[in-house]
## 1
Amino acid sequence: MGTRCRRGAAVLFAAAAVLGISPVADALAGLGAVTVKSQSAGVPKWSVVFSDVTATPATTGAPNPGLDTDTYWWISNNGTATLDPHFTVTITIVTTGGASAQLEQCSGPPNLVQNNWDESAGTCLGTGTMSVIAYANTPTPYVLPASYPVTAAMRLRLHVTGNGAGNTATLNVTVSR
Amino acid sequence: MSRYTTTLDRLPVAEPPDERKRGRRLAGMLLGFLLATAVTGGAAVALLTAVAYNNPGQTVSSGKLSLGLTDQGAGFTQAVTNLVPNDTVYRYVDVSNNGTADGTNLTLQIASSASNKLTTDTTNGLQLAIAACTGGTWNTTSAGCSGTITPLVASTPVSGVTGTPISVVSGAFSAGATAHLRVSMSLPTQTEVTTNGTLPANSIQALSTTLTYTFTVTQRAGVTTSG
């Protein structure tokens, strides 16, 4: 009789399990209330590049211009984050053959896309003043404006100062945070 | 002796007519008794009945356990965008027990629409913290509290909240109670270098997700009440 009872109980528990009924869980169950809301969260991309045209977000790479003449380049925020002094931008010019070159910019009122050069004369427009922002083979921090928004770009000149003929320079820029 | 006597001697002994009637009567009474017994189930037939009931009737009702979640100023409806390392963004929500039953153990679990470094990286991914403004309300502009700021959840990786609920209020969360919560979302200090527009491997950058916050409360423990 006892064995038969135990078998019966086992069958009942098995049937309950098949039906998804847990006698133990049911004994512990009570009222519960739930409330739900969703929120979007995202992290931008911080990126600065050199290019011969105003950069797009897909622009990558390190230009490798010849140093026979001066050349003009854009340095652009092609990421999705507004850059400010919390970010560190570093420019490195690597030359071949012992060539000397430097990157120069003309100061001027900060605009989103700014070219303060008279490129035919090789001088600054208006009352702008020229300053060197990086020397060859010396990594140099580039001081950003207080706010350097997405797509902002500044025109720079790679100016050859010695032994440029037949040699090249590679322009690299990094941005870190 | 007459032949009648003889006849009588030959006939079976018969009861007189009166006795036969009495026997039938007895049989009928017995049958009636048996029928009555069958109908009443063997019980004695009750002839008097008394009933008592309460008037008016007793009211019995069950409690309702229900949670509400509303934005206060910038809440979960406002996206958290453009997070960079060292950023912290506050969002303000009220969680209310708007039912009639007392609850206990308010918990939070977060589901992420995307599985990326934001919600899977314990060290460099999103970090969550929750504080309550007790006895007052939040100033969502200054992040100040007109009451007392009570830390409820210390900074913890979101990755640790996506699998297992965490406790927000471990004790009672009574009917009518409202927790004024400030939910902090931050991206911890970390350094990444983007070179010539190319992101580093396993970057935290350019990622996004949608977080779904689920607050749950359970009923208070059942009690036996007397009187």
## 2
Amino acid sequence: MPVVVTDSSLRDGSHALHHHMTVEMVRQVAKALDEAGVPVIEVGHGDGLDGSSIQTGPSSVPEMDLISEASRVCTRARLAVMVLPGIGTRPHIGEAAARGARILRVAVLCTEVDLAGQYLEQARELGLEAVGFMMLTHIREPAFLAEQARWLEAHGADSVYLADSAGAMLPDDVRARVAAVKDAVGIGVGFHAHNNFGSAIGNCLAALEAGADRLDGSLRGLGAGAGNAATELIALVLERLGINPGLDLFRLMDAAEFVMAPFMPFQPIPDRESITLGHAGIYSTFLLHAKHAAERHGLDPRDIVIELGRRQALVGQEDWAHDIAAELAKARAAHDGGDR
Amino acid sequence: MDLLLVSDVDATGDGPRLARELGVEVSSRGVDAVLERPDVGIVFDATSAGAHGRHTGRLRAAGKVAIDLTPGATGPPVVPLVNLEERVGEDDLNLITCPAQVAVPIVHAITRLGPAHYAEVVSTFASSSVGPATRAHIDEFTSVTARGLETPGGARHGKSIVILSPAEPPVAMRCVIHVVPEGEAEPSAVDGAVHAAVAGMQRLVPGYQLRSEPVHEEKDTPWGRRRTVTVSLDVVGRGDGLGRCGNLDVAAVAARVVGDAVAQRVMRAPQVTA
């Protein structure tokens, strides 16, 4: 079965752009991906449908406008949207489907997969392909993940994904988890990388070796934290392995260089903060919040990140970065005061 | 109120076992066993959103007042400190959700001072404190919480974000509430109203506490850069059977307060004999 590549530049990339994606960006990027033969394009706020919030950052453009625009320009690619149970709700999914979404990716923490039930059911009712997307898979062992994947399969998932949401895994960690899940289910198995250790592409290779038949990428790796695996590099890897499912290498490289790069405020790389995020096992969306909180209190963001890891911050607890910064600043002031 | 009956569909669980230990009658026949008891006037329905929808008509026909602890939202939303008095005569009172019980008193306190475009509550729970019925109805749980911020909370538009944390030891419940007032909300007036609401809630739920003073600052909102009020709360459970995460304490206390009010009203009403 050919490997199915999903480009999530226009969803995971939303985090790196602080959710200021524009219709023009979606038009150009989706068109370029479609022309390069990418079969699935994911669009929306970084936190999925109705993810626009004060907590993680409001979208500057209504998400449905972005979905409609992507749908308008795509001739071959199928559109995917993500829903996080506890954030997006069924009316948003119905609306996204009406606007042209064909795939629903239901993203749940890998310990909470039973939250996906209602949305897998809705996907079936709407005729959408359903993906059970397990997040933060580094926090649990392969056997546990295999059991969760079986639950998702039994409840209607057409494929199941393992996301290394914190970029906290090395190739062996990925290989063991993907292999266990692949053994446990009869549906497709995908992997979504983050590049915090600089091993996103290596991790994708490990996932392929362990039986994954779906990979996520984004152009130039645009995504939360240190970014994702670059779609243009995934295409290159598949070409070199002799299993390119029809991706146009040159068009993808051009899309990355001439279409995506001009929209990017910065190139995500494993910098000191995102390396620390991966090391602490913290979700990449905490990065900008940790940086802001650190600036505000004159702290080293790495100290905030390590403390977030110690407190097991998982997803949606971005405000903890500010609490921790305030506590660290207070502790430092008390310490400095004591010295005098 | 006297507790006459605990009825589950599976009488072997922890709840029925505890009820038996306390000498309370237990049934495994669900709502049917309740409907057979003419001496039961008030029914606390803690089943699931779907099941409550099937129970309402039958309970009403049997002349029983339902206090709905599911996010089924078949009846009007009730938050004790906000609108209990105006709703106590209804026969199906919806307690919305635990995050709504925590956040609505704060949102209401702020919107009473002036209209608000928006209120958002981000609530984090210990994974172990959220049971299968809520998990199977996370969609209702999320959207009914958001609607509660509108009515009775008073915000024009509500949004709810629900996060389950598998962290061990289990986390205490945490609510962060963001409000976008339409006009210039006077910070000292807002702070006073928030503190009064917190004090009111603390009388009911001692573990309900402000994490820090309300924060007034400009933030990116769906209406552009605007002045916002952010209130962070911790709700720590007493740990007496309902765990350390305070969500279940809040729900249980709200149910008891509403039940007491209904019971008093029933007792005050003239007795009608057939």
